[in-house]
Write a structure and sequence with these properties.
The protein contains 2 helices and 9 strands, in the order E-E-E-E-E-H-E-E-E-E-H. With 218 residues, the protein is of the alpha/beta class. Strands 1, 2, 3, 4, 5, 6, 7, 8 and 9 form a 9-stranded mixed β-sheet that branches. Helix 1 runs parallel beside helix 2.
Length: 218
């Protein structure tokens, strides 16, 4: 599979994971959302979650076209992280399929698990604020389910859009924030067994890039 970037960025990194082999970006205005034509793999603008303290200061990333990111430059001073529970904002997928409360809870738990799993390899993950501790807040603003059946070799692409802000865990001072949306593109379409499989692949991709970004910020 290839991971196609559909607009804005969660965190401006560059690490690919799993079966993600390449990254192509459509126009920067195309973020994962609710399309007017739900039979087309093209998403409209994503909803703002409100977790980012200042959306106006997000700027296009010079490294990743079509991304929006901001950093204070202080992030490298932090060696401990608190990962808040992830918020899943939408109650239906990008193509209008309802997302149950149980599914939202499972997706939120899996995204947070991926973030913690990557972070704890290079940083301390803690639950209590202390000096040099940053807090990571993430919200998934759109979910695109993969669509297909066991016998169907055509599939709609799945993915997600999300926002993130990192703050000082004691003072609340913003340290970095960004927005991203990714869609997984299958090189050879295959039957869809888990409609959220692509979404979870995007979560792992984001977590890996976040880990690399924090390492390079040191």
């Amino acid at each position: 599979m290839a991971l196609h970037r559909a607009g804005l960025l969660l965190i401006g990194l560059g690490l690919m994971v799993g079966a993600c082999a390449s990254s192509n970006k459509p126009a920067a205005s195309a973020a994962a959302g609710n399309p007017q034509n739900k039979g087309v793999n093209d998403f409209g603008p994503a909803t703002k979650s409100g977790i980012i303290s200042d959306y106006a200061r997000l700027k296009p990333s010079p490294e990743f076209p079509g991304t929006l990111v901001w950093t204070s430059g202080k992030l490298g001073n932090y060696d401990k992280f608190i990962v808040d529970p992830v918020t899943i904002v939408p109650s239906e997928s990008a193509r209008g399929i309802p997302i149950s409360a149980a599914e939202k809870q499972r997706l939120a738990a899996e995204f947070r698990y991926d973030l913690v799993d990557v972070l704890q390899a290079t940083h301390k993950v803690v639950v209590t604020p202390m000096p040099r501790t940053a807090r990571i807040k993430a919200a998934v603003t759109q979910v695109a389910r993969s669509t297909g059946t066991e016998m169907q070799w055509f599939r709609w692409e799945g993915g997600a859009a999300a926002e993130m802000e990192i703050t000082d865990a004691m003072t609340g001072e913003p340290l970095a924030s960004a927005i991203d949306s990714d869609v997984v593109k299958a090189r050879e379409p295959s039957p869809v067994k888990d409609p959220y499989g692509d979404t979870k692949l995007v979560f792992r991709h984001w977590a890996a890039r976040l880990g690399k970004w924090l390492i390079t910020a040191r």
